[in-house]
Specification:
about 325 residues; ADP-ribosylglycohydrolase fold; about 60% helix; about 0% strand
């Protein structure tokens, strides 16, 4: 797929702004909502004593997907999913923080090799869902952004893949549907420069389209702090979209804004996402993926770009390299 210079910049912004939002929120994770005028900085700290600018599991798990996508593999294939799960398992052995649900699933495949890793994870994910009925955490939505880059020319394939990659650890269909909706919004933003969370509604099951449409309306008429259960995938998505909408009441056609306006909106939106509190880094990472897709790598503040870093020893240029590698395979 031939992309314009602007589209390529927006594609490179996806991982970059995901990481920026994640690192911005890391020091505030699980804290209370903050006042509207409270400063938000990449201060680090938090429960895992993150270094300033260090991203968390949100970006780390997305990087594992991006690395496999950059090889040109079809992420729907068994081999690609084996590689992704094996990469997650390797990361989880030394990660300072792994989500509870993700940890439960990856723990089952911890001692296995690459072959069969995805099947083992899927079986564990399904078993956890059957036993508890509670597999709709936000852990698959937080990592879904790079899936969009691998299927810019294939929205139906993107929807299928987003659902499948989500189910590897989060078997609940609402988690998969959230990933479909957000991934297709990211695709739309890369191609058009527009922020439109409704772009993927047509790829959801007919029975849930109105449900998700109502959830988006609710988000647009709320504050990020209203979504106090943002560890749940639905409220995480709503909080992210709410932060974007709250920072700019006009949430369509933003690609026409000048560079300063785009950068300002990205920054203000991510700060609002963090001020929402609780799972602040994840909400900001989710919002960042879509904002980066609409505004591009060039809209990410330079001081943030200079600061962000994390597993597996990457910095901002490495994230751009990964995105570029995925585009080269499309």
């Amino acid at each position: 797929m031939e992309l314009t210079t602007e589209q390529r910049d927006r594609a490179c912004g996806v991982l970059l702004a995901t990481a920026a939002g994640d690192a911005l929120g890391a020091g505030y994770e699980f804290g209370p909502p903050l006042p509207d005028d409270a400063p938000v900085t990449m201060r680090g700290g938090g429960g895992c004593n993150w270094a300033p600018g260090e991203w968390t599991d949100d970006t780390a798990m997305a990087i594992a997907i991006a690395e496999v996508a950059a090889t040109g593999a079809d992420l729907r294939s068994v081999d690609a999913q084996d590689q992704i799960v094996a990469r997650w398992v390797g990361w989880s052995r030394t990660a300072p923080d792994v989500g509870i649900q993700t940890s439960q699933v990856l723990g089952v495949v911890l001692e296995g090799g690459v072959s069969g890793a995805a099947a083992a994870a899927m079986a564990a994910s399904a078993d956890l869902h059957e036993r508890t009925g509670q597999t709709a955490g936000n852990g698959s939505l937080m990592r879904t952004a790079p899936v969009a880059l691998a299927y810019l020319d294939d929205p139906a394939g993107l929807a299928e893949t987003a659902m499948a990659i989500s189910a590897l650890t989060h078997f609940d269909r609402s988690a998969g549907e959230a990933c479909v909706l957000w991934s297709l919004a990211i695709r739309h933003a890369v191609l058009t420069g527009e922020l439109d969370a409704r772009a993927g509604l047509g790829y959801l099951p007919a029975r849930t389209v109105d449900v998700w449409a109502a959830r988006l309306v609710e988000a647009e008429n709320s504050r990020p702090s209203d979504f106090s259960s943002n560890g749940w995938v639905v409220e995480a998505l709503q909080a992210a979209w709410c932060a974007i909408a709250a920072a700019d009441s006009s949430i369509s056609g933003n690609g026409s804004q000048d560079g300063a306006s785009r950068s300002d909106h990205l920054k203000l939106s991510l700060e609002k996402a963090v001020r929402g509190g609780r799972d602040a880094d994840t909400v900001a990472a989710i919002a960042g993926g879509l904002l980066g897709a609409a505004y591009g790598a060039s809209a990410v503040p330079e001081d943030w770009r200079s600061a962000i870093h994390g597993w597996p020893g990457y910095k901002a240029p490495d994230l751009v390299r990964l995105a570029t590698g995925i585009l080269a395979c499309d």
